[in-house]
Amino acid sequence: GNAKMRCPFALLQLLVALLHVQTVPSTHLVERTRRLQDDAGYNGSCTWTDCTKWELLSTSVVFRPTVTPMGVSSPQSLILPLDQVDELSSVECGPSCSADADALSRLTVKIGLMNESEATDFATDFCSVSFIVCIRLPDGVEGYLLLLWGDHRGGQVNTWAAALRKRGKRVPFPAETYELKAVLGLWITSVPLEGQLTEEIGNLTSLRLLTLRKVSMGGSLPASLGRLTSLVALEIQGSKRTGPGLSGPLPPWRLNSLEVLSIVEARWLEGSLDQIANLARLKHLTLILPGLRLPSSPHLGPNLTTLVLQRVDLNGQIPEWIGGMANLETLDLSYNDLSGPMPPSLMNLTKLRHLSLSRNRLKGSLPDGFGSTWPHLEELELQRNQLSGHLPTELSKTTNIRHIRLSYQRINEGFHGPLPPEWGSLTKLEYLDVSRNNLNGTIPEQWGNFSQLRELYLEWNKLSGTLDALGLPPQLKKLHLSHNKFNGPVPDGLAECAELKELVADNNNLGALPSSLDKWTNLTKLSLSNNNMTGTLPSLSPIKRLRMVDLSCNRIEGFTGNGFLPETLEDINFDTNALAIIPASWHYLPAAKKLRLSNNSFTASTWPEWFETAKGYCANDRISTLSEAKEWLSAKDPPDWPVLRELDVSFNSLHIDVTDFLQGFRALPSLSNLTCTECQLKGNLTCAVLHHFDRDDVQELVDSRPVEWSGS
Asked: Is pTM beyond 0.85 here?
């Protein structure tokens, strides 16, 4: 009936040196081909009954509609545009679909995707099945697509595939697949199928699309694939986590109708692209770690509009033959070992929409007139090279551009000189990254025209002046300005950007934040360390989604109002300021994992009283009298920081007893690192530090009044 002592301080470490926590900048390069598909997706003009299926298909280069969110597609790049494909009902599909009902029923039951009752849908309402899309192609051919997409969140196939992966189970590739007569597309993605394709795959002569991505299958590619003369798209993607995958020599196919060929992470395939002959109709070629040899001058045909050659060991200068591919709209040679200057012949590619040459060793200045011959350009990626010179002013003529990335030019400190005022004409620009260069000067006032800007990265340059020229891009989500020489206040206009998620401007000379932050309801990261902020901070409480705040190395003295912080905050850093008081509202920080308050002005007289809890009882491991229980309950509550792991209050002249100091933290269940270097603590550690009783247990004990406490 007595309350027993608990010791939640088991992992507490008293550090004797100041911990230095360094955040390492990280970059994330989204897979090029996936981003292009995302950009070219569903544009809201669905005329089908099932718009979910329309939306899913429209993300594929094969079914990209003639009008996308990025604008009108080039006719020469279209394969089977979705707005020219008719959706069919089960009645309309008729015999073409019903002939395969029995085989599909047996197939899905065999692999566990459907039970026998569910599989009767193939006989009664074939086209209503969630992973079946019944269509009529522009040439009048009718049939269906079998979409086994294990990476489509929430879909029936995804649920089934996830359950298999969770159990570590794989299922054999079903032989019933080879019985299908009307299947126009076999699309298998992220499904744990094992085994190998047999020569019977050549029986599926109706196939227009064959996609095998991230499956566990192995063996060689059958030579009978060459019999699929109607095939317009062949996509093979291995997986790093599912074994060796498809291997062996590439058969000498004659796929005369092929318009899309994609081989990704299939490093165990052997042979040369020369073995794929007569690909005169090829429009889209993607090779990423393909395991195939690339001829020095491959015969790629005149119709090619997309050429993606990532991680194919290209070296030396950019090949001259690329400049002769007049119909190219997408050129991606990233992640290779290309070197030397940018060849002027690239300016001949007047139809370019997407150019990525990132992560190579390209050197020197960009050619004169760079960008002037690319009126359709939407995306430019040259980051992580060794380029130098001035930023190209002629890029201002690419008035359709939405994405520019020129960061991390490693040698000779990259691009130098001012930011081009001429770029103010790029009114469709959504993403701009010129960080990690040697740029100087101020932000041009013309850049206030970036009304569509979503992300801007200018950090690690030598830029100066105020931020007033940024204007008010209403859709701005990320603004990174660290390690420059910007000065003045953060503009009040920036507080109007309700979509802002990240404001990172460390190591500048910026002054005050806007007086009201009520519209920053989407902000998750606020980092303005090592600036010139003084006085009182505006209230951060309206920033309901804030997870990280770093205002260290300023001269902040206090907080507006009661200093409430958002309950979502996980990482709080106010190191090296002029704070003297910890607001009482900080008693409850439910999500905080790190709290850094070193090098401020806290003293014994300003250290908060709610840190002072009742002393433990060293002589006994239990509360044995009513008076002891009441004494415990009358003490101030300890801070309610349930997930706090790290607390640093170093270099504050507290001059208080070490046991008194530590008692406030003994109830924190997650605390593992407490740093108080040079805090002027005094006295001896006593066992009271390790004694703690759960307040709810003690209160329950008092309410029940144990018999042995009678008269106490």
From this structure: yes
d(CA 460, CA 436): 5
Helix, coil or strand: residue 512: coil
Phi–psi pair at 448, nearest 5 degrees: -65, -10
- DSSP classification of residue 441: E
Amino acid at 41: G
pLDDT at residue number 3: 43
Low-confidence ranges of the chain (pLDDT < 70): 1-44, 69-70, 239-244, 274-278, 411-412, 611-622, 690-692, 707-708, 710-712
Q: Is residue 10 within 8 Å of residue 632, measured between CB atoms?
A: no
Query: Which of the 8 DSSP states describes residue 502?
Result: E
Residue in this structure with the two tokens 């990476």, named with its chain if needed = 151
DSSP state of 293: B
Give the pLDDT confidence score for residue 250 in this predicted structure: 78
Per DSSP (E only), the strands in 453-552 are 455-457, 462-465, 478-480, 485-488, 502-504, 509-510, 525-527, 534-537, 548-550
Q: Rounded to the nearest 5°, which phi and psi values hold at 69? A: -60, -20
Residue 526: beta bridge partners?
503, 549
For residue 67, give every residue at least 6 positions away whose Cβ sits within 8 Å of its Cβ, in sequence order, or none. Answer: 43, 45, 73, 83
Name the DSSP letter for residue 289: S
Contact 461, 485 (CB under 8 A): no
Q: Which of helix, strand or coil describes residue 622?
A: strand
d(CA 660, CA 254): 83
Nearest to 441 by CA among 377, 507, 385, 485: 485
Residue 598: name the closest of 583, 612, 578 by CA: 578
* 711 CA to centre of own chain: 65
